[in-house]
């Protein structure tokens, strides 16, 4: 059985970060996140308008798997995250 989580990720890169280092970091972050999206574990990712932040939905086997995915993010050291466990709402007509 899998579990669903909403994760808000707020990013704060140092203003003085070397541009080449920043570009490399962002490229690695994109590749890593897309790998998990293709696997189906990172179900969706939404930009928070006007912020350097996103709201993502994960479908994972366990809390430990989510923890490992999040800790593997190249941007992890520059993020503040809020993790919310999700459950199907009884009024959702699209519920699986």
UniProtKB/TrEMBL annotation:
GO MF terms held by the record: muconolactone delta-isomerase activity
Class of the enzyme per the UniProt entry, highest EC level: isomerase
Residue ranges occupied by any Muconolactone isomerase domain in the UniProt entry: 4-92
GO biological process: beta-ketoadipate pathway
Pathway: Aromatic compound metabolism; beta-ketoadipate pathway; 5-oxo-4,5-dihydro-2-furylacetate from catechol: step 3/3
Keywords: Aromatic hydrocarbons catabolism, Isomerase
Recorded catalytic activity of this chain's protein: (S)-muconolactone = (4,5-dihydro-5-oxofuran-2-yl)-acetate
EC number(s) recorded for this UniProt protein: 5.3.3.4
Family named by the database record: Belongs to the muconolactone Delta-isomerase family.
Quaternary structure and partners: Homodecamer.
Name of the protein this chain belongs to: Muconolactone Delta-isomerase
Species per Swiss-Prot/TrEMBL record: Acrocarpospora pleiomorpha
